[in-house]
Amino acid sequence: xxxxxxxxxxxxxxxxxxxxxxxxxxxxxxxxxxxxxxxxxxxxxxxxxxxxxxxxxxxxxxxxxxxxxxxxxxxxxxxxxxxxxxxxxxxxxxxxxxxxxxxxxxxxxxxxxxxxxxxxxxxxxxxxxxxxxxxxxxxxxxxxxxxxxxxxxxxxxxxxxxxxxxxxxxxxxxxxxxxxxxxxxxxxxxxxxxxxxxxxxxxxxxxxxxxxxxxxxxxxxxxxxxxxxxxxxxxxxxxxxxxxxxxxxxxxxxxxxxxxxxxxxxxxxxxxxxxxxxxxxxxxxxxxxxxxxxxxxxxxxxxxxxxxxxxxxxxxxxxxxxxxxxxxxxxxxxxxxxxxxxxxxxxxxxxxxxxxxxxxxxxxxxxxxxxxxxxxxxxxxxxxxxxxxxxxxxxxxxxxxxxxxxxxxxxxxxxxx
Length: 417
Known about the structure:
With 417 residues, the chain is mainly α. It is built from 19 helices and 2 strands. It has one domain (22-414).
């Protein structure tokens, strides 16, 4: 089992990401790459020269390449699609937009839907854009909305690859999806209505009043379909990433410059995400080793679904939710003594449901809980939105707004089982 001190670089990186942008923002902007890659090098060196564990390093590298290929390709292709919006959004119109985003998240994936819709979402609310617009977009479109299909969120796709039937997710998760997204949308409506009533420029200005809804860059929908289809390609190795790279290049070089200009497209957001997650993927290896080796003993012999719900959820907030899902799925196999996924679904379906829902919903609790979260933050900041820091995000939004929803889901679906 991984020694706890090996998790120190991961803790230091999380601490730096949380505190430094608040107390030393200029220093962080200049040196974040050195911090992330330097701490990652410490863990990598230990695994390579002390443990001689090239297998774990290879797995982490492959997962990182798959992650950045998906996120980067969707970022570039969505940057070639410009959705023109009309007027300024009312709170009700915003709710409808988020509902559409939640549905699309199950078709395009949370990353695809988030990258496609974040820019028009910002433009739609440009007269009164505030942090809550972006945070609730992360809550709904980039996370909770995508729990109805394996395409929707990376943890569910990993479950599908492990043998969970494709439609099992929709058949079992829809009550949690309906309650969770419904509560988040209701909370957002009241928060946004208060902002709307106080905003001095809530009404459409003369420039936006004459605009109509429009979409440019439609050929990029083909490249988007190639990326989504490539997600299902498993062999040979790196063919999936090669297809994504080809779609990225095709999109970038065929998109007209005015479309990129209208989206204020550049590579800075994806560059920042690539660097920070390079550090995260390497430094969190000891934490994932601990989860894989020690979770079964910590869970006990007959754990309830609630333990899996909160265990998966809390660690999905601190680690990437996809490997956390796999860790608890492995632990469930061990405690259930199931031979395969089909026997597990017969005896412990509610436990697997708890893991699935928690990994998706709790992934919204921090910027690093799910892949698109940090990307949405970076694009918002690029467009001039003042985003909360890591700590502010948790204290001002996750705890007062998201946590009550998570508790209600637990009470309704997992408390008594």
